[in-house]
Amino acid sequence: MIRVSNITKAGRSLLMAATMLSGLAPMAHPSGAQAADGHSAEMPRLVREDGRYALMVDGAPYLVLGAQANNSSNWPSVLPQVWPAVDQVQANTLLMPIAWQQIEPTEGKFDFSFLDTLLAQAREHKKHLVLLWFGTWKNNSPSYAPDWVKLDNDRFPRVVESKGIMRGSLSPLAPATLDADRKAFVAFMRHLKQVDGQQHTVLMVQVENETGTYRAIRDFSPMAQKVFDGKVPDDLVKALKKQPGTWKDVFGKDADEFFHAYYVARFVDQVAAAGKAEYPIPMYVNAALRDPFKDQDPYSYSSGGPTWNVLDIWKAAAPNIDLIGPDIYERGYDFYTKTLEQYKRPDNALFVAETGNDSVYARYVFATLGHQGIGFAPFGIDYTRYVNYPLGAAKIDAEALEPFAMNFKLLGSLNRELAALSLKGKVWGASEPTAEHSNTLDLGPYKVTVGYGLPQFGEAKPTGNDKPCGGVVIAELAPNEYLVAGYHARVDFAQTTKAGKNGFMMASVEEGHFENGKWVFERLWNGDQTDYGLNFTSIPQILKVRFATY
Length: 550
Ligand code: DGJ
Known about the structure:
By secondary structure, this protein is α/β, with parallel strands linked by helices. The longest helix is centred in the middle third of the chain and has 24 residues. The chain binds (2R,3S,4R,5S)-2-(hydroxymethyl)piperidine-3,4,5-triol. The site of (2R,3S,4R,5S)-2-(hydroxymethyl)piperidine-3,4,5-triol has 9 residues, from loops.
């Protein structure tokens, strides 16, 4: 029998060790205002340990519980409609575009007034920011580039598709475009360092938005064709362990798409590198997805963007990009979880850069954590009354945002603990599936079954919730000691190998919460509350469960 006092001590020391190893600060203030309070505010950075990741904020692992505003909300006049929704959804971070057209309407003349206003308001609202550089690419097009760029096809050439038709997307191979974008981005990052280099309200910068090109696999202009007819650059050949040759020789039928991906990634990488030379905070790109299961004609998605089939190319070509995050606007469980698997890689931190704001997406924050995610950000979170239905919800109000708010409230109260334990590989998560009404998690010594649509009392078959809304997160504090939290789900632990002589039991189930990094006990669950598994409803509840054998 495991001695209860030892487990508790062990539990405490594992969290302490995770805390110390990762420098877990006692619940740092989300705004970065602590610098003024004398708290040391370190630069945000992404750390990697054994193929797992954490975003370090004020020196400790942090989960981005984000909210992205709508595309045209990047104006001072709109911010009063943004903050109430961000507060409502209980996000700790606002993701907001910084448009090239807005900061450099005239070439060489910069205006950072929106950024300054946004920063000041974010600090007042005690929120962090992730800034999205809408430059050469915004969903394939240069729509957010200034007129002097997007109206000058000679200086800033567009992609020409195979039949000679010019597309909206700019060519990644035009040195003038790279030069102009890079200059603007450098000015932006230089300014950001001046205004935020101490407080670190801004955690990350997204470089461009959903790069790639619709309705053309690559640029077929004579200028691009010349490059395509040449050799695949050595760095890519080496990184992919290929034999040297032309694009056609090396990549066959994929040559056109891989060529485009490589040069889009190289462009973005050079922009990011120049920005980091000014102010080196984490930089990432987001991906418009292709079907995660089957081959798809590149004409039907954003060819050259960081879709799953070209992640190796992007990784090789864009070393200054810290991570590639999927934008997930598919409600289906299999699509969603497959995409999480594809973007969680030993060489890529998982960050759900965008997801739909309809209620059924909310539960996927749990699966994201289960895939070692460092953050999750629903899109279209403001009260401008714009709805991007059918991708998102048909209406955005407090009621529509509630499923996200519930989850962010619960996870926000565990933010630092979960982020630190996740970096150590001690976090699991499950979201409600739809074809079946339960799923299992493999914790090593325990197999956990999570059932959805079960009563709190008595044995029954899971039937699923009326709308899929269940989710659970589990974190190992010490051998045989776990934090368990979630909604609309029943959690059952089973031993995978028989440890005790006769059986095992939940020695104690404490309900409580964390305050300044310390567990605060509220009550014990027992009897009906534990006899039929651990039943989570719509109430935010955190349990600390200890197992013992007899
Ligand atoms: C993905 C893009 O990255 C966003 O900016 C936005 O256009 C959404 N799609 C759709 O609302």
